[in-house]
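Hi there, hope your week has been kind to you so far. Thanks so much in advance, here it is:
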Amino acid sequence: MNNSKRLITLSGTLAVCAFTTAACSTLPEPGEYVVYRVAAGEAELSDGCFATGVPANLREDSSTVRTNGIFMLFASNEEGVYHLDIGPATLDGTYEGAYEEGDGFYFEGESKDVTYSCSDGTGSRSLAITRTMIDLLVDGEYISGKMKARTRFSCEGAECGEQIPDCAVTVHFVGNEIEDVVLEQDVGAGDNSPVPEPVQAQPTQSLEPPTGIGGNCSPTCGHSECQVGGPLDPSCNACAFEVCNGGSYECCAEGGGWDTNCIAEADYLCDEYNGDHCPAFP
């Protein structure tokens, strides 16, 4: 697919001054920016964005109410590179050239979210990669385009469950340049973007960790609670938990040890106070 067709089918999300007109004949230079008021239509979500298909309560919903926001285009110090500030994030891109329909820009960004089933970085590993793409078409003071965010999921490990399908979110937008505007915004100020939450990688119904994530992450006990040895982690089994939380901290603390006193506690506490948990213990 050539660039002009791509710019029509995936036209971007911003507005830049039309570089084919006499009033604006050059691209923004480093230190310069162009600001646009943008109105975005309803987000289109693929079936993969829902765990079990589109919910019945959403299937027939629709809206012609647009979401509004401010976009800003500015040049990088690196030749040929431009940045598009869409509110919650900024994407890098390039000027694609002048086409019959207007001047084109293309921006993209990618984020990776890695999750382990155990908080210590062990167990199953799930990966979500979200790629956001914006094709921007500028016609004089007006812009039009389409933003598309696609999230792909993968998982490795015994707790992964069923494969989660890809989720694609598409948003069409239009807008126009705001002239003679000076930006005044505190660093870290709020979001002023028409980008819907799914495009900002906020979880939808299907964007949950694979089934089974969050399974058994307890460490393995270094030895039996009925044997002398090093300190035991209180989370390695129920008996160690009872002893460690019963006041025998030296049995579990770093630098301590699991001695005969700890075994006596295990023998008593871990068999409902019958003293039969460790048969070999006198």
Summary: DSSP finds four helices and nine strands in the chain. The two ends are 81 Å apart (CA to CA). The first helix runs from residue 3 to 9. The first strand starts at residue 33 and ends at 40.
